[in-house]
Amino acid sequence: MESSETEHSQSREWRREKRVNVGPTERKASVIGGAALAMSGLRCISKQNYASGLAMMLAGGMFLYRGQTGHCGIYDAMGVDTVHTRNSALTIEKAVTIGLPPQEVYEFWRNLENLPRFMRHLESVQVTGVRTSHWKAVGPGGISAEWDAEMMEDTPGQQISWHSVGEADVPNKGSVEFKEAPGHRGTEVKVTIDYYPPGGGAGRAAAKLAQGINAQQLEEDLKRLKQILELGEETTARRTVE
Amino acid sequence: MRAVCWHGKHDVRVDEVADPQIVSKGDVIVKVALTCICGSDLHLYNGYVPTMKKGDIMGHEFVGEIVEAGSGVTRFHVGDRVIVPFPISCGVCWYCKRELWSLCDNSNPNSWMLEHLYGDTGGGIFGYSHMYGGFSGGQAEYVRVPFADVGLEKIPDGVPYEQVVLLTDVCPTGYQAADNCNINPGDTVAVWGCGPVGLMAMMSARHLGAERVIGIDRFPERLRMAHSQCRAEVLNYEEVDVAEALQNMTGGRGPDSCIDAVGLEAVGTGIEGVYDSVKQALRLETDRASALRQLTKACRKGGTLSIVGVYSGFIDKFPMGAIFAKGLTLHAGQAHVHKYLPHLLKLVADQQLNPSSIITHRLPLEQAPGAYKTFLNKQDDCIKIVLNPQESTGTARPGSEEAGAA
Ligand SMILES: [Zn+2]
Ligand SMILES: [Zn+2]
């Protein structure tokens, strides 16, 4: 993610002066991951699951603080500087079985502008070209991320894959496979998303914390996709029209 | 409208809340004629289910009249009197198509809460916490009922609401418990727990051809009811060693089938402990598996254990060795009410089955707070309470605690 590598001694100098030891990519990723984490923490607390909720809030708060100031005390303590380190992908994989033929599920997904209907944190996906699209995600407090994506693979009824291009806030790539499920059960939809948190021990550890939450969100997203495709709409327990 | 709302442990109130509306095109609004307090509502009342929120409307057992129908509803019309099954089912998913209605894949928007603990989860349930979907319940004047075409059953003219209100849960739950026993002529069925579900299981076992039915409980009024309504022989587990008594009553073989209509009531707490709180909650309550251990010990070789009492977490000292050595078959789960409703409704209409005979209390909705207390403490020989939201006491003020003093 970082365009230049700097020598260790130089980086220490830089950090002392600017008090910034979190790279710009990570700053944005931290804000998003942290928001998701804090939000999930809040949700757990509202469900009276206090212990784990609080733990998540704390972890999320740490992310948010780091994202806003560009400084992370834990990194300092561990001597980690991610501005000058490359990083590797974290992967989320989730699957759901939907009671429709693969071609139908594929077609719904292939119309990328449908994605925000079931991916809750996606605000919009705009098709900008034959293979390109612009994605916008939002978290609580108006924290947002945007990126352009390019489709890599597009095999009707089987697979779609994409990756972010250019100056993505959170570099990512993903693929979705559509496979006929045995025994006329419909389609097995398997989604794999790789995203690139900043490298370094602490950064990666923290991002891994957020990964569970992101995996959870993807799972909920896929359940909504199933509802929309099988029922025509998302299931709701609301008592009144809002 | 007025509705019985959860406010905390041992604190339910009749509040004035917004009327429900048609939200999805498959919805109907039901004007509730009668609604019951269920044994499993006591889990909520006792504060054991953490995904309850202040203001949640209770109740999953209700019947009434359709007063509004969504544009997608085809099987019903305004004015129809209907039975509403307690599990919510979409009707199109793999499970619904196989009549595993209570395991519906699409009806619980909060299914993730239980998936962490169980690996997967059942469908939504009216008025039964947010982990079961967060749907408003039927202890209210009106209810929004989703997937109306799928779940509801029309009540034939001339059949009063009271005759069918137990078909929403306890009657099909008891029937499924007996059905799972694959009863053969000459069979003996023993039922742990002579509450409403246990009584219904005994009635159903009789109906399905059991030669003998044995009811086990410790409350004399429940044992009396089992004897009088279900022609059951009865055992008071505080007075006898149940497993030994059952062996001796069955020529040393043991009952052919054993139904657990007790469950781990207090362990219901574990459900929401999606993460660590589970262990904590359960540590306190592991001894409540005693009924299940008795069942296992008493059951004859090759027999069936049918579990309808609610279990939710983990239990200690589960007698896997006995299950294995005796080659027992185990059935469990929430009732697939939709599957049994037409048949049970016909039995009721033909007067072959009389579930309403176990109703002991009939009260206006306003008296719900007091009714919960009475039911919890098994006072006043209380077995089944039915509330009427349309009947007014005249003096009750919505939202006031005194309004409920029975
Ligand atoms: Zn019930
Ligand atoms: Zn379903």
From TrEMBL, chain A:
Residues 1-25 are annotated as: Disordered. Residues 98-222 form the Coenzyme Q-binding protein COQ10 START domain. Residues 20-84 form the Inner membrane protein YgaP-like transmembrane domain. It holds the Pfam family YgaP-like_TM. CDD domains: SRPBCC_8 (cd07817). InterPro entries: COQ10_START (IPR005031), ORF3 (IPR047137), YgaP-like_TM (IPR021309). It comes from the Bacteria. Transmembrane segments: none annotated. This is DUF2892 domain-containing protein. It comes from Geomonas subterranea.
Automatic annotation (TrEMBL), chain B:
The keyword Cell membrane does not apply. It comes from the Bacteria. Transmembrane segments: none annotated. Its cofactor is Zn(2+). It holds the Pfam family ADH_zinc_N. Keywords: Metal-binding, Zinc. SMART domains: PKS_ER. Residues 8-387 form the Enoyl reductase (ER) domain. The keyword Acetylation does not apply. Belongs to the zinc-containing alcohol dehydrogenase family. This is Glutathione-dependent formaldehyde dehydrogenase. It comes from Geomonas subterranea.
